[in-house]
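[scheduler] slot 2 assigned
[scheduler] job type: sequence-to-structure, two independent chains
[scheduler] chain ordering preserved from manifest
[runner] begin chain α
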Amino acid sequence: MNIPYRRRFLASMIGSLGLHKAIPLAAQEYVPKQSDRPELTTGDEPGFKPIFDGKTLDGWEGDPKYWRAEDGALVGEVTPETLLKSNSFIIWRGGAPKDFELRADYRITSNGNSGINYRSVVLPDNKFGMRGYQADIDGQNRYTGQNYEERGRLFLAVRGQMTHVVGGRKPIVLSSLGEPKDLASFITADWNSYHLIVRGNILIHILNGHLMSVVIDDDAPHRAFEGLIGVQVHVGPPMKVEYRSFRLKEL
């Protein structure tokens, strides 16, 4: 039996038995064609799991003075009566991922400052403080999209940069991803969607489908390959930040 005929025969058998309905898309053989081009996907790829139930703070640890679950969102709020002396995090206690993708939506007030920490540790003198990589967020979008290492090496890549961190000097800019002001135009005053891709020493921040920053971290004594996930309310004026649809895919 020649190969093309065998493929047609198997396809007809699968169709007649209805087996094509039971085969997951990822399991079906993909044969590239010269006309094929990369394409956008609709929804999350397989493997993402929710880490926030939208109703309670189950699995999360934070100061209840600042954090609550409300209307499907994880809400962090600082009022005039609860101004902070140091940044306060709510920490996901479901694991310490190594290589992963993380997706989450956020909305923040214009004077707010927040961020998503990952591969981070809790400070020894503050159980609601963290040190580690941060996908930055602020209401004025001065810093949103950059990679800032909280209580560590600070600015690893600003928005619009691909950098190489080697230690002993400032991070090296390898390439421009776009002008920071142009990239900021993709950020809305309402809900925005963050997508983090963290594999080995490569840290990618994507916001609303646009690449914001990339870090290649070769600073061996100071980089981290696993750690906690948390989100922040920042020292400063009263503010509010909301997160929803936290989904994690460990790689």
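[runner] end chain α
[runner] begin chain β
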Amino acid sequence: MVKDSSTLPFEVTYSHSAGSKSKTTSMKRLVVLLKPENVDSIISTSTLRALGLESTIYDVKGSGKEKERVSSGRGVGTTDLAYTTRKVVATVVNSDNVNDVVDRMKKALGVGSGAVVMISAVDDLVRL
């Protein structure tokens, strides 16, 4: 077991190999799928930064019910893209703080943002 010396707001002990019982009990990974214009409100001082959480941001494309329209030329034509662009913000929190973090995200985004929060358990952390 190796103790982490990073500045995370919770204590993490990594193992040297997968499945060797690292101390990640009661940790959750939060993944938020949202529109690109809403990323700043999630990362801002009222949500993740205020709690001292670090995050990773991904650019993703997907297809679904929503269509994204793009104007071309001098505004004469518009086309529907086959995909929509979204951002994914991922972070790891203690399971005791999950509800607080999700509530802060709801306040920051407001009603009707279309964001989705996916919560999964963190079984093990291995430092490479």
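[runner] end chain β
[qc] chain β: The chain has one domain: 26-121.
[scheduler] slot 2 released
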